[in-house]
Amino acid sequence: MRSPEELRQNLAETVLNVRSGRATSRRRLADVMHLSPTTSGYYVDQLIATGHLYESGLEHGGKGRPKRTLGSVPGAGWFAGVEFNAERIQTVRIDFSGVRTAADQLHLPEDADTKKVMAMLADVIGSLAKGAAGPLLGIGIGAPGIVDPARGIGMDYAFLPDWKHVEVAAPLRRKFNVPVTLENNLRAIALAERWFGGGRELSDFVVLGPRSGFGISIVKDGRLVGGAFHAAGEIGRWPWPMTAGKGAPEMQQMLCAPAVYRRLAGLGSRARLPENLNEALRALADTRGERWDGVIDDYARVIGCVHLLLDPEVFFLHGPLTALGDGFCDAIRTTAAELMPALLGSPTRLLPSTLGDDAGALGAASLAMEAWAP
User: Fold this and answer.
1) Before 241, cis peptide (omega within 30)?
2) Are residues 169 and 66 located together in one domain of the fold?
3) pLDDT for 100-113, tens place per residue?
4) Domain that holds residue 365
């Protein structure tokens, strides 16, 4: 006999399989979850009774009797997703079926510190409730830098000097009285790719995130990789160049989106950034020459090394550098193969993501959605 907690988790897994489209019928659910038809039917009946699933319509297959179609009830509740970096906060609201119903962006003040960020997080979550259908069921937070998801703590972030061992989840949990899940913002983006982007059918991929900093997130065998000390993917903290000695600058200082813009535009490292960095980069997409080649070479070395280490199916480029277009990704891929002949047997696939600037918030909402249990 299953324990109440085991039943709860199985019901949650049932919802995930129906919501994702992997299980569109009772029979398909039984196959996906390796259950008997009787057991899967019991779970479905329970969730229909509680208003989380519905069953209607006909799904016609090639043979046999038509099957009733399962779906999740959009108005059963909603999930809040919030992601932030040193410059702005993005928010997304998704309904119980995983459909985005609201999104917003708020710029951080230049003097932002931990106290202000935490207050703003609470405010934007409260704002998401306006016009929402059903109760708030969970909150997902995508935080920059190193985080401890198990304890809900932001450990360190280079661009907010006082962001050290910050309790993020606990105060929000107390305020809103719902589960709060914390994850590194790039790993949250990986979840967005899995639910809404190009990673839906992939088991191994890497998200490349040159934004205000630089890092990657890794999905291996269908699972997010966090690392023993929650620092997997923090490659922006590598010394740069790699041959530099003690006290060298970090890689993110050369390869983050603002640095790439300044390099391509021929500006100094402290030059003021344009108000719309995406548009400014898009204007440089057809630039070719020594500065372009230098950026491509640096990116090719980094991505080539990561590819030889992790061997992913695809790299997804996120952030403002997607404005440089397919030509940027193609040049990196070609140069990586030239620099590292070992890659010729497994050529690098680098694609600009089809998701927008709110991918981190969308992924954070997905995080809350995946963590939900009845």
Assistant:
1) yes
2) no
3) 999 999 998 888 88
4) 76-192+359-371
